[in-house]
Write a structure and sequence with these properties.
- This protein has 576 residues and is an all-alpha fold.
- Helices cover 59% and strands 0% of the residues.
- Helix 3 packs parallel to helix 5.
- The longest helix is centred in the last third of the chain and has 24 residues, at 425-448.
- The chain is elongated, with a radius of gyration of 29 Å.
Length: 576
């Protein structure tokens, strides 16, 4: 339902006109003067109490004043005026004035006023950070001849430096000096950029209004003022709270979700830096047991944001970001939005193919990607919620049909075929982890879709499955024992996936109908073979001798039949 603009707070976030503030603007003297005057009015509120700003002084700052101040961010000549730390405190105080007022639909991020306060806060924060990192002049030099507003380039540079800050933290270097919380390497200490109490206030404002926060950041434009600088500040805030606040893990869980929400809609540069924040604040255990959506509208927004990002952002297909985003998406599906799940699956598989085909199987991260992707897929299908969503039959059918049409089983086959034999214990363990992730996917799928439906959907894949099965059954011939073990393990994983998908009867029937009447039985096609064997059970000794002579001339001892798969798996050592 559309509401008329509020006399003070302006249009709702949903109804606001997306007026571009991304174009360069060289302000004339009158507009520059108006912007400076507006900034000074806002800045003066930093020394006032929250109560006074909320009841009296805050009313002097209207939407027109906020817009005039923000105009200064669009040109290289006027951007310096925003290097004004007191404005940060003022913006938080102004956002606080919107909190909890009737009607209940009005929140800091629900209407134009709070959104403009937040945008101004972000631009001022980014300018202040770059000035302290001594990079502001460099950005202005680089963007002199560009068409985009200066604040866009500033946020891009902030994202780049935030990534460097997390690299420095990993090597034991400090980075809090830029916030004025510690001395720099040369012993100099900056004034505090923003007190921890104000950071806490803004953090809580965003958390309490996280649904509208996501909505306010989701016009899905490629170039917007980025929030990676704010995410960096929040991450350092949590690091400080860890030392003194017994509930720091609760705060960390909130930041984890806030950062995941923003990563869903951020552009490539901002998302890279935000994923660093996510990695630095990983959650375990209870965080994954509860839904993350506020309501059905929020659930729809989260799933829709994921789909739109994978649809529109070409660069994301070259990163490991989608599996990270699925941590939030999987916990945000409800009964009313599960119809979006097939589309989530479609674009996840599309990403999987594009990323897979861009990787060289000789690269060190090949095995890591296979495991990471399949583990995320399993998590999407069967998240560890206390009360998981039960998929209706229509959703089940659509999900597995998408998997079939997008060639997910071909993807799994190709992953196993391209998996390199391990030359060290660590590499062999990594391969074992890949096998586990593939089998976990099969188990997760059977938890949400009845096996009979899986057999119906994937039954036509049996001839293709058989080709891959024969490949793994025959390739160990002439190989070293380590290589034979590798390919047998791959074959067993392939068999286990088929078993979980309910394909075992169809495979046995296919083998019986197509392979036992030849002049000599094929190595994987004995009449009495079964999908539980990596090698062959032959009709009789004559078939066995003929087969090994024609197909495996380098193998001379064929007296022992292969054990059943269940026996092999019991001693596999990889948690199968």
């Amino acid at each position: 339902m559309a509401y008329p603009p509020h006399p003070r707070w302006g249009c709702s976030v949903e109804a606001r006109a997306l007026v571009s503030d991304l174009e360069r603007a060289d302000l004339n003297p009158a507009l520059e003067h108006a912007g400076i005057q507006a900034l000074q009015k806002i800045s003066r509120l930093s020394s006032e109490s929250y109560t006074l700003v909320q009841t009296d002084l805050g009313k002097e700052i209207n939407i027109t004043i906020l817009q005039a101040a923000f105009l200064l961010a669009r040109g290289p000549r006027t951007i310096h005026h925003l290097a004004n730390p007191p404005v940060l405190k003022s913006c938080i105080r102004l956002m606080k004035t919107v909190e909890g007022l009737p009607p209940t639909e009005i929140t800091p991020f629900s209407h134009e006023y709070g959104y403009l306060c937040f945008k101004l806060f972000i631009v001022v924060l980014n300018v202040c950070l770059l000035e302290r990192w001594d990079k502001l002049e460099e950005v202005l030099t680089l963007c002199k001849d560009k068409e985009l507003a200066v604040h866009v380039y500033i946020s891009d540079m902030v994202a780049f430096i935030v990534g460097k800050q997390f690299e420095a933290l990993k090597s034991g270097e400090g980075c809090d000096w830029v916030l004025g919380w510690s001395a720099s390497a040369n012993g100099r200490r900056q004034p505090t950029l923003l007190p921890l109490s104000d950071i806490s206030t803004l953090f809580n404002l965003i958390w309490d209004d996280r649904k509208k926060f996501l909505l306010s950041q989701a016009p899905f434009t490629r170039k917007v003022t980025g929030l990676s600088g704010l995410m960096f500040v929040f991450s350092r805030y949590i690091a400080h709270e860890r030392k003194k606040n017994l509930e720091w893990k609760l705060l960390q869980g909130k930041l984890y979700e806030i950062a995941l929400r923003y990563a869903l809609v951020a552009d490539a540069r901002q998302r890279r830096a935000t994923v660093d924040v996510i990695d630095a604040n990983k959650c375990t255990g209870d965080w994954y047991n509860t839904p993350k959506h506020i309501d059905t509208e929020d659930s729809r927004l989260i799933l829709g944001a994921y789909i739109q990002t994978l649809t529109r952002d070409e660069e994301i297909h070259e990163t490991l970001h989608p599996p990270v985003l699925l941590r939030l998406v999987a916990l945000s599906v409800n009964d009313s939005t599960q119809e979006l799940l097939p589309e989530v699956v479609r674009w996840t598989i599309e990403y999987g193919w594009r990323m897979f085909l861009s990787l060289d199987d000789e690269e060190d991260n090949f095995e890591m990607f296979i495991k990471f992707f399949m583990s995320a897929f399993s998590y999407l299908l069967s998240p560890p919620l206390h009360s998981p969503v039960r998929l209706i039959p229509l959703t089940q059918t659509k999900v597995i049909e998408v998997m079939r049409k997008k060639g997910l089983l071909d993807w799994i086959a190709r992953a196993l075929i391209q998996l390199r034999p391990g030359t060290t214990y660590a590499e062999s363990e990594a391969n074992g982890d890949v096998h586990e992730s593939l089998i976990l996917f099969g188990k997760s799928l059977t938890e949400v879709v009845p096996q009979r439906e899986l057999e119906r959907c994937f039954g036509q894949y049996v001839p293709e499955w058989w080709k891959v099965h024969r490949y793994f059954a025959s390739i160990p011939a002439g190989r070293s024992s380590d290589h034979r073990d590798h390919y047998e393990h791959c074959g067993h994983a392939w068999l286990k996936v088929a078993e979980l998908l309910g394909l075992e009867p169809a495979i046995d029937e296919y083998a019986s109908e197509n392979y036992y009447n030849g002049e000599a039985a094929r190595s994987s096609g004995a009449r009495f073979g079964c999908t539980g064997c990596i090698h062959t059970w032959y009709c009789d000794d004559r078939c066995k001798r003929m087969d090994w002579r024609l197909v495996h001339p380098h193998i001379h001892s064929h007296d022992e039949s292969a054990p059943a798969l269940r026996d092999l798996l019991s001693g596999f050592g990889h948690g199968f």
